[in-house]
Structures are given as C-alpha cells and as structure tokens.
Amino acid sequence: MDWSISTWWWVAAGVLVAAELASGTFYLLMLALGVASGALAAHAGLPFSAQLLVAAAIGGGAIAAWHLKRTRQPPTPRAQANRDVVLDVGERVRVSHWSADGSATVHYRGAAWQARWQGQGTPTPGEHVIRGVEGNRLLLDRVTS
Question: pTM to 2 decimals?
Fold first, then answer.
C-alpha cells in the first residue's frame, strides 16, 4: 500500500482533530485547519515546500486570528461569580448586623445564609448585592447604582 503525501496530510489533520476533541484546546483545531490546507495544496500538485508554506501560513494565521479575538474579549468571571452559573449573583439582600470578622447572617430565599464581606472598606448594615457564592456562603458587596 503506497500512500501519497496528501494522505499523510489528511491523517495528520485527523490526529490533530482527535487531539482537540480529547483536550478541548481550540488552537489544535486551528492547526488542523492549516494541515488540511496543506493536504489541499498537495492535491493541487504543489511541491512539498509549498505545501509546508501553505499549511504554516493558514494554521499560523488562524491561530493568530483566534488569539487576537480571545484577547479582545473581556475575561469571563470565576464560576462562583458568574451569573450564568450561579443565578443568585446580582440579587440583593439586607444585612442587619456585621460581625467584627466581616461575616453576617442574612435571610435570603426563605432561609438563613452565612455571608462574607467581599467589598472594599468596612461593611455597614443595609442593602447589599451578592457578588458570588462560595459553597453555601454568600459573598456580598455594597449596592452600586
């Protein structure tokens, strides 16, 4: 069985796609795109050096474009402070008394919850907003308008 160079390109692309599926690294998919373009260059009859250049240019360009796209997006919040994960984030609670260690007990959703001050400065009684949930403890901050 004699494999052509384009077959090897396609096998390499398949290996990269399988590695991406196993690891979840999107950059491997961009490399697979470059390797697939190398296979198409082989089908077009380009010499091996041109195939390498096409694969490197397409794969490297795709990685650079993806990296630029990712750096221009705002960072995603931690899971415990992400409203898409924890629906309590952003809700308001009333604190009647803070302990000296920055903890309090608040009534929220019909139950007593332990809360911890996460904001700047000294906590004061009043209305606060939930900024995150750490286990069964609410992380509170001042309400900003």
Answer: 0.56
